[in-house]
């Protein structure tokens, strides 16, 4: 009879463990699985937004104007003034040269100055 008592206890033990387990709720499990799938899909879309291999610069502050910007402005003004002066100088040379009256060793030379070959 001792054997039958042991068998009875062995059969009762799994039943007691089953009572300790909470019952499964299929609706809650489905809702949880849906939520996990939605989170995974959102993470996947966030990771794969079509910008693979592209570098995005972080937003930065507007650079300050330093001494070099001032020097560049002064240089620009100097170039503009130089261009105007060169233009005016070139305009002055477009007029025909004046008549030359030269006396060389008692010989009077007059006429236009010889033109230089271009």
How are the elements arranged and paired?
Blueprint: H1 2-20, H2 26-47, H3 67-93, E1 100-104, E2 107-111
- Major sheet, described briefly? 2 strands, antiparallel
Q: Give the fraction of residues assigned to helices.
A: 55-70%
Distance between the termini: 137 Å
Q: How many strand units?
A: 2
| SS field, number of helical segments | 3
Instruction: Please state the CA-atom Rg, rounded to the nearest Å.
Output: 51 Å
Task: Spell the H/E element sequence.
Answer: HHHEE
Biggest sheet: strands side by side, in what order? 1-2
Structural class call reads mainly alpha
| Shape descriptor | rod-shaped
Which band does the percent of strand residues land in? 5-15%
Query: Mean of residue pLDDT?
Result: 76
Spans with pLDDT under 50 lasting ≥5 residues? none
């Amino acid at each position: 009879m001792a054997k039958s008592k042991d068998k009875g206890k062995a059969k009762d033990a799994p039943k007691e463990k089953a009572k300790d387990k909470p019952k499964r709720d299929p609706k809650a499990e489905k809702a949880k699985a849906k939520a996990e799938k939605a989170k995974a899909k959102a993470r996947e879309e966030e990771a794969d937004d079509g910008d693979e291999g592209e570098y995005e610069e972080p937003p930065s502050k507007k650079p300050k104007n330093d001494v070099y910007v001032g020097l560049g402005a002064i240089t620009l003004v100097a170039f503009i003034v130089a261009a105007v002066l060169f233009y005016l100088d070139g305009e002055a040379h477009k007029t025909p040269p004046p008549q030359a009256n030269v006396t060389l060793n008692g010989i009077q030379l007059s006429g236009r100055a010889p033109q230089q070959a271009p």
